[in-house]
């Protein structure tokens, strides 16, 4: 029988924040989020400050993403056979060391595309080992009936920081240089590592061979139709959203709206939507968990269609706000469904397979979009991306299991 760190029986009648281990987990998440919100901007200006351009930044971002995809399955296997608190400790420590080294390199003037990319590779590797462990850790700490509230509380600090973090990071970079923002990010990882190490969660399953664990994880993933269909739909939706919003959004904003000023408002509306979605999840506990997770992804098509159809900026802002709300509701509902309906000993591997499936779509989506804009105009491609997002959600709603995976303890 898998050994887990179950909360005391009395904790089941209280809110998640009354559980000491969960408070520690949330505190670590909040501290880490303050650094992570500043890091992308600091990284971009570290590359630019050394004379790099879009190509150099692209290389750096790729070296951060590729190892996450490559090592994620191994991270999922380890999350199901080792102490998840130990994995979170090591992962955050590695990320902190990578960001600390990057801060020193930038501060001393020795930054180059190669050195920054190496640090990014280490950070991406750390993410691959912390993501699967984090989802399983929450399910070990919090009773099943409180998981939705716990997942929402975990997203609250990161979403709140997203509203102000980039602006604060921009001010730090402008007045002190990117090295200070990177150093703060490194420090937050280190503090979070110490807090997470104190959770002392037991390993969820007995140790077997890695290959056997991986094979069993794939069997569990494929045998649950609701998991792999959600992953497949998510891959299409992630590719359409990132290609349309992140890649073409700023270009269309420059062509059709007020450029950087209006695009900043759109980004702000999305961040506000994510925060509002977290508040919704704290107040609303739907019974049809998986149905809500699927349906809530459909609003992501809104901003893409609004910009593609050339609607006025207020409509784009409203659509983006609703997209942010929907995305956060979907993330919380999906995480809760997995934690309540997947055994502890499989959560890490299932999370890893899901993460790999969705992340593999990112470079493919960028590539297809780059080819498409050579044939059609940007607005037509945006409408096509929006249509793909609607189609992915609609087809996923046709899966019978979507209506069977419901909240437990209700």
Key words describing this protein structure:
disordered N terminus; Growth Hormone, Chain: A; 0% strand; globular; mainly alpha; 410 residues; 2 domains
Quickly describe the structure.
The chain has helices at residues 20-36, 39-49, 54-79, 84-107, 113-141, 147-176, 178-197, 210-223, 225-256, 260-283, 289-295, 301-308, 313-341, 347-372, 378-396. By secondary structure, the chain is mainly alpha-helical. The chain folds into two domains: 16-207, Growth Hormone, Chain: A, CATH 1.20.1250.20; 219-403, MFS general substrate transporter like domains (Growth Hormone, Chain: A).
Description:
The chain has 410 residues and is mainly alpha-helical. The protein has 2 domains: 192 residues, Up-down Bundle (Growth Hormone, Chain: A); 185 residues, Growth Hormone, Chain: A, CATH 1.20.1250.20. The chain has 15 helices and no strands. The N terminus is likely disordered.
Any idea of the CATH topology of the largest domain? Answer: Growth Hormone, Chain: A
Strand content: under 5%
| CATH architecture field of the largest domain | Up-down Bundle
Count, helices: 15
> What is the first-to-last residue Cα distance?
26 Å
Oligomer: single chain
What is the number of strand segments?
0
Q: CATH homologous superfamily of the largest domain, by name?
A: MFS general substrate transporter like domains
What integer value in Å does the Rg equal?
Answer: 21 Å
Arithmetic mean of pLDDT: 85
* Poorly predicted runs of 5 or more residues: 1-13
CATH class of the largest domain: Mainly Alpha
Overall spatial form: globular
Output the structural class.
Answer: mainly alpha
- What's the order of the H and E elements? HHHHHHHHHHHHHHH
Number of structurally distinct domains: 2
Give the helix level as a range of percent. Answer: over 70%
Biggest beta sheet summary: none
């Amino acid at each position: 029988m898998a050994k887990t760190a179950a909360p005391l029986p009395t904790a089941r009648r209280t809110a998640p924040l009354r559980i000491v281990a969960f408070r520690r987990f949330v505190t670590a998440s909040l501290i880490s989020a303050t650094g992570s919100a500043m890091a992308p901007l600091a990284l971009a200006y570290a590359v630019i400050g050394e004379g790099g351009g879009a190509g150099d930044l692209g290389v750096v971002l790729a070296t951060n993403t590729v190892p996450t995809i490559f090592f994620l399955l191994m991270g999922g296997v380890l999350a199901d056979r080792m102490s998840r608190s130990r994995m979170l400790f090591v992962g955050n420590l590695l990320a902190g060391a990578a960001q600390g080294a990057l801060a020193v390199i930038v501060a001393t003037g020795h930054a180059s595309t190669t050195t920054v990319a190496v640090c990014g590779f280490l950070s991406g590797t750390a993410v691959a080992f912390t993501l699967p462990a984090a989802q399983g850790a929450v399910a070990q700490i919090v009773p099943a009936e409180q998981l939705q509230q716990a997942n929402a509380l975990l997203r609250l600090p990161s979403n709140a920081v997203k509203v102000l973090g980039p602006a604060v990071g921009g001010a730090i970079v402008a007045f002190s240089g990117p090295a200070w923002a990177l150093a703060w990010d490194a420090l937050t990882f280190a503090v979070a590592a110490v807090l997470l190490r104190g959770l002392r969660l037991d390993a969820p399953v007995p140790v077997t061979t890695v290959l056997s664990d991986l094979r069993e994880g794939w069997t569990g993933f494929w045998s649950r139709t609701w998991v792999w269909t959600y992953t497949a739909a998510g891959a299409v939706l992630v590719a359409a959203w990132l290609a349309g919003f992140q890649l073409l959004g700023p270009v269309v904003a420059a062509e059709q709206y007020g450029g950087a000023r209006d695009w900043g408002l759109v980004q702000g509306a999305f961040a506000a939507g994510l925060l509002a979605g977290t508040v919704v999840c704290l107040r609303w506990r739907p019974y049809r968990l998986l149905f809500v997770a699927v349906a809530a992804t459909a609003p992501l098509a809104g901003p893409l269609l609004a910009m593609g159809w050339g609607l006025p900026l207020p409509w784009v802002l409203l659509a983006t706000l609703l997209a942010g709300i929907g995305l956060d509701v979907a993330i919380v509902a999906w995480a809760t469904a997995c934690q309540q309906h997947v055994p502890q000993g499989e959560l890490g591997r299932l999370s890893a397979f899901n993460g790999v499936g969705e992340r593999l779509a990112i470079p493919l989506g960028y590539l297809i979009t780059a080819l498409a804009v050579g044939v059609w105009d940007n607005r037509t491609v945006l409408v096509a991306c929006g249509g793909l997002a609607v189609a992915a959600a609609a087809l996923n709603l046709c899966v019978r299991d979507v209506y069977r995976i419901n909240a437990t303890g209700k």
